[in-house]
Every structure is written in structure tokens, then in C-alpha cells.
Amino acid sequence: MFYREAGEFKASYKADQAILPIRQDRWFIWAILAVAFLVIPAVSSDYWLGTIMLPFLILALAAIGLNVLTGYAGQLSLGTGGFMATGAFAAYKLATMFPGMHILLVLLFSGTITAGVGILFGIPSLRIKGFYLAVATLASQFFLIWMFNKFGWFTNYSSSGVISAPPMTAIGDVLVTGAHATVTAKYLFALSIVTLLALITKNLVRSNIGREWMAVRDMDIAAEIIGIKMLPTKLKAFAYSSFLCGIAGALWAFVHTGSVEPLAFDVNRSFQILFMIIIGGLGSIMGAFLGSAFIVLLPIFLSNAPHWFGLDIPVDLISHIEAMVFGALIIFFLIVEPHGLARLWQITKEKLRLWPFPY
Amino acid sequence: MRLERDVFYIILASLLLMVAIPWTAGLLSEEIFFEWPFFFEVAIGGLLSGVMYSLVALGFVLIFKASGVFNFAQGAMVLFAALTLVGLNEMGLPMWLAIIATLIVMLVLAMAIERVVLRSLVNQEHIILFMATIGIAYFLDGFGQTIWGSEVKILDLGFSQNPDFYFGGLILINDFDLIAAVIAGILVIVLALFFQYTRIGRALRAVADDHQAALSVGIPLKHIWVIVWAVAGIVALVAGIMWGSKLGVQFSLALIALKALPVLILGGFTSIPGAIIGGLLIGAGEKLAEVFIAPMIGGGIEDWFAYMLALAFLVFRPQGLFGEKIIERV
User: Fold this and answer.
1) Contact status, residue A278 vs residue A340, Cβ threshold 8 Å
2) B residues 241-260 near A, CB within 8 Å?
3) CATH class of the domain at A45-354
4) Coil, strand, or helix at residue A217?
5) Taking CB atoms and an 8 Å limit, are A278 and B131 in contact across chains?
6) How far is B78 from chain A (nearest CA, A)?
7) Residues whose CB falls within 8 Å of the CB of residue B233, separated by 6 or more in sequence, listed in order
8) Which of A14, A211, B171, B264 would suit a FRET pair with A139, their CA atoms being 20 to 30 Å apart?
9) Among A82-86, A242-246, A273-277, B46-50, where is mean pLDDT lowest?
10) Quick one: average pLDDT of B167-181?
11) Pairwise CA distance, residues B65 & B208, whole Å
12) Range scoring the smallest mean pLDDT among A57-66, A138-147, A236-245, B165-174
């Protein structure tokens, strides 16, 4: 009744090819953005912004990065954590080497450096795929973390191995990193960057490059026959995916935790982000956000749920039960909807189009 | 023909390993302690811990062969089996009874996994099944530790852990490791015989070759899956007993699963002997590299050496030492 494209006439190619051709979709996205930029910072407490919204946004960015590689280009990767660590350490080195550099430039360059590393570890993908590639990317995960732990140069020879991000300003003299930055500023900064990058990615996957990725994913031999070059296409996917993961890592270290430590980017992080894109939906930007929300909120919900029911359970038992419920839910979701939350969203929209008169 | 070539490759690889590591160690650094008996001691120690990797990799191979599922939960199954065994033993059951009870638990687990997970996900893409096994892994980790607690438990089988001298008093070897190697060897032989000569074994191989064809000649796919997961559960129990009595039964057992991945790459995803030899090569290579090469670049390379070795291997022989050439080149 309310959601339908009937009666919406496009007068130009531009209007026809817009990201959201249906008016209600556009309203919906604007509403979400308005809520995210205006309502949430106004009504949320620092706890909500700092411990839920920030990780949600930053991990969603990393999930978009992995989704480009796995969901769009079809290359399974377990090295996301390693690439995020690369971004974080690159940002730290840049920020300490060139103290005057603006944070946006730092993010851009750290993303670029990570893209270079991603290309390097993407080279084996030209010969192998599937689980073999997953093991190859696992090598990058362990190697990169080991490297950042081992060589003092990356941490500027700090004795503890954990280093704190220097305070930096975004616009004017509003601090967005360091101990004195307000949570609201951090949140708005991360939100702007994630929104911008999500928009760029959305456009990229609709473009020539994105179609090449999807062609490679769907059937590589057919893609090659119609003239798509494997080497540049796959390496582009690795480069762009690592670029996003690198920026996500830099944001995580600088804006979220405020300290750069390799442990935050271990193999569990890689799995966490893989979960996000599978539960959210492979090959969907929306899915990356939905998956991230699910994975970030679920543990918080699970660890708080016993208190609401007045049960008193020891902490370690809660963490085990949490793992158990988490595993069971993953299996449940895969059985009910293997194509993820994004597919559920799509089905809802299709149903809504006919509602309330299905015939 | 093929076998001879494979054996040739293996001998070549081990020779390279034997020569390359001492050579680089001797050439690049004067400070590294190097003597041949010590070298062999490290190599044998590595081979014996490689046996452990092989045991975990074996579970992977069994399930991958029969169902094409890449079972990430193998490590969690190792932990779960060991936890159940120790838990039952602590409750007062004698060891032999506890082992039998654990075997039954693993069988029930296999049936549950087949009924709840695999049957619902039949015909899904590989990555979905892979994800489902990660879900199983989380569930088992949580479940096992919820029931039996998460503190480090000691599993004592009564074997001596003291090293003795072998080979004319030259080389120091742990007795326990030797026993573990013998048990692993027996397990592999039993499995090989089972696969080669029994009716069920033939059915398993048929399913591995082609699901559709196997179904059409009347092999019940569901039963086969239960059997293969149960066998993988038994292998997990053996691995759990071995690792558990060596390191104590604790959460880190589940992480061995990751180390089994490079083993599989080396040996090939579909080959039982490959899993064994891959495990041995990774074990030996890792320890040798840690002792003789690592001091040059800062140490601690044990974490990633296996993966890098696998990565290098992938470039030259993507199907592994014994694997079937199913890998699709692009």
C-alpha cells in the first residue's frame, strides 16, 4: 500500500539508474541517516555510544571490506584481522612520524598501505581458491600479527608493546582521538567516515569493476572467456577490501579503543567479521551493517539476559553459555535463511509491496 | 607410477628440509648452536609432535572425503572428547569405562550433528556448511566447558613422561611421545584397513567419489554421514587423550584445529596417508625452523611457519602431496 514503485515514472536515465530508484527507499535511508546523525547522539548515553555504536560502525566497515572480497569477488579470506592490524599500525607510524598530518590523510594513507599488503597476500589467489585460499590468508593473519609483535620499529620501541593513539583533530579543534575526545565527537567522526565509504563501495559494486568481481565470483572460467582479466580483477578486489579493512583497523585503534595492540586483531577478529557477513548476507552492503549489529549486540544481550531474569550465574559460566548460544544461533540462522539477514530484509520488502492486497 | 613419483617428492622434500635448515643455520649465523645429534633430537621431537597434528588432520580428511564438508569443528571435538573423558573419570568411573562412555557420547554427537545440522543443510554451498561447522565448534566449546568447567584438567594415563636415551645413547626422546606415535600408527593402519576391506569402508569411498552415484546404487547417505562423523569423533577422542595427557585438558586444545590446516594443504585434503605425512613434515619443519632459523629473525616463528610453508607449497603443488587433483585452477 505504502511501498510500491507503481506510479513512479523516471524521466531520465540518471533517475532510472539511481542507487535507490524507489522513493520510499530513499525516504527510509534519509530517515536512518537522520536518526544516526542527530537522534542517536542526542539521546544515547556515553556507554551506548562508546561501547555499542562505535564498535558496531567500525566492524561494519571491516565487514563491508570483507564482503567486497568474499561476497562480491568470491575469494574466501580469513586474514581480515591481519589487515586491520596493518591499518592500525600504519596509522600509528604515520601519525607519529608526521605529527602535523590531518587524521583524514592518515586514514587514507594507512588504507593505501594496507591495500599494498593486501595485494601482496592476494597473489596466491590467482592459483588457488576456496579453502586453500582461506589457509593462504590465514598465513597472512598469523605472519602480520607476529611481525607487529616482534619488531620494535612498529611500536616505536615501546616497552609494553601497547601504544596509545596520539590526540588528533578532525575539523577545527574538535578532538576525535586520544583521551580528551568526547564520545559524541568520536561517534560522529566514525559515522561520517563509514557512511562515506559505504556509499563509495555501493557505487563501486554497481560499476564496471563490481560487475567484473561478481562475474569472477559466479564462474571464473566464463568470466575469463568474456574477456575479464583475472589478475587485475582479483587484485583490485584484494586491494579495495584491504583498503577498507585497513581504515577500519585504524579507526578501531585510534577512535574506539585509543590504543594500538596486536591482540585486538587476532584470528578471532577475522572469524567474527566472517560471521558478520555470513549472517548479514554475502554480497550485500546492507547485510554488513545488519550482521555487525547482530554480532555486536548478541553477546551484550546474552551477558545481560540472566540479570533481567534475576538469575545469578558466575561470569565464566556465562561466557561458556554465551559461546554455546552463539554457536546454536549461527546454525539456526544458516538453516532458516542461508542467505543472511539481508535476504530476510529483501523478502520483507517484496511482501510489503503487495501488502495488504496480495492479489 | 603415481605412487613412485609421490614417494620421490616426499624423499626430496625431507632431504631438502634436512639439508636446507642446517645449512642456513650454519651459514647465516655463528651463534646458533648446531650439532648433528642435537639436530636429530629436535627433528624427532618435531616428528612426534607432528603425529599429534596428523591425528587432528586425520579427522578433517575423513569428513572431507565422505561429505565434502570442511569440518572446522574437529578441534572443538578433540576438546569436547577430552573434557568428557576427564569429567567422567573424575566422577568416579574407571578409565576404561570412561573411554567407552565417551565413545558413546561421540556417537550420539555424530547422530545429533547429522540429524540437526547436515540434514537441514543438504545441497547448500560449501561455505554455508563450513560456517555451520564453525557454529558447531562454538557450541561444543561452550557446551563442554559449561558442563565440565574450564579449569585445566590433568589426564594421567600412567605413562612415563621422562625422556630416555635411544639409538645407542645418542638421542634423547620422550617415552610418552613414542607411545603416542605407536598408537597413532595403529589407528592409521586400522582406519586404512577399514576403508579398504570392509563393506562400510567401500560405501564410504563410494560416497566420497560421487554422492549421486552412491545414492543411486543404494548406499544410504544419512547412515554414512553418521558413521563418518562418529569415526571422526573417535579419532578426536584419541587425539584428545594424547594432547590432553601431554598439555593438560584445556581450551587451547581446540586451537590445534588451525594448525591442522597447513597439514592438510601439505598432505592434500583427500588423503589419509597425506594427513599423516603432512603432519610429520609440519611438525619437524616447525621445530627445526624454530630452533635453528628463528634466532636469526627474532624467534617465535612457530606461530606462522607452518602456514608460510603451506603457502609456499600451494604455489608449486596445490593439490598437496597425495591429494586428488580436484583443485580448480583459474
Assistant:
1) yes
2) 258
3) mainly alpha
4) helix
5) yes
6) 16
7) B77, B81, B103, B106, B107, B109, B110
8) A211
9) B46-50
10) 68
11) 5
12) B165-174
**Nearest residue, CB atoms, A136 vs list B116, B137, B311:** B311
Q: What is the pLDDT of residues B279-298, one digit of tens each?
A: 888 888 888 877 777 666 66
B142 contact residues in A (CB cutoff 8 A): 320-327
User: Looking at CA atoms only, how far is residue B274 from chain A in angstroms?
Assistant: 16
pTM of the model: 0.83
Cβ B329–A127 below 8 Å, yes or no? yes
What is the residue extent of each domain of chain A?
Answer: 45-354
A143 shares contact with chain B (CB less than 8 Å): yes
On whether the CB atoms of residues A270 and A65 are closer than 8 A, the answer is no
> Would the CB atoms of A76 and B70 count as touching at under 8 Å?
no
- Is the model's pLDDT at B330 over the cut of 50? no
Q: Residue B121: how many CB atoms within 10 A of its CB?
A: 18
**Dist. CA A324–CA B135, nearest whole Å:** 9
CA distance to partner chain A, nearest, from residue B183 (Å): 29
Is B109 touching A (CB cutoff 8 A)?
no
**Domains of chain B and CATH, by start:** 2-316 (1.10.3470)
Tell me, yes or no, if A273 comes closer than 8 A to chain B by beta carbon: no
Residue A266 to residue A317: CA distance in whole angstroms: 23
Q: In sequence order, what E strands does chain A have?
A: 163-164, 259-260
Cell of A90: 600504519
Grid coordinates belonging to A301: 544481550
Asked if B287 and B233 touch (Cβ cutoff 8 Å), the reply is no
* Residues shown for chain B: 330
**Closest-approach residue (CA) in chain B for A143:** B304
- Please report the pLDDT score of residue A242 as a whole number: 95
**What ipTM score was computed for the predicted complex, to two decimals?**
0.76
Contact yes or no for A330 and B132 at CB 8 A: yes
Mean pLDDT of A305-325: 76
Kindly list the residues from chain B whose CB atom is less than 8 angstroms away from the CB atom of residue A274: 131
* Residue B1 pLDDT > 50: no
Supply the pLDDT for residue B329.
Answer: 47
Burial class (CB in 10 A: 0-12, 13-18, 19+), A114: buried
For residues B281 and B12, give the distance between their C-alpha atoms in angstroms, rounded to a whole number: 12
Output the pLDDT for position A344: 87
Of B128, B138, B314, the CB nearest to A127: B314
B165 backbone dihedrals φ, ψ, rounded to 5°? -90, 135
> What is the structure's pLDDT at A55?
92
Q: How far is B35 from chain A (nearest CA, A)?
A: 28
Q: Which long-range contacts (CB under 8 A, 24 or more apart) does B159-164 make?
A: B159/B245
Contacts of A357 (CB under 8 A, 6+ apart): A1
Neighbours of A330 (CB within 10 A): 23
Angle at B186 between CA B160 and CA B79, to 5 degrees: 65
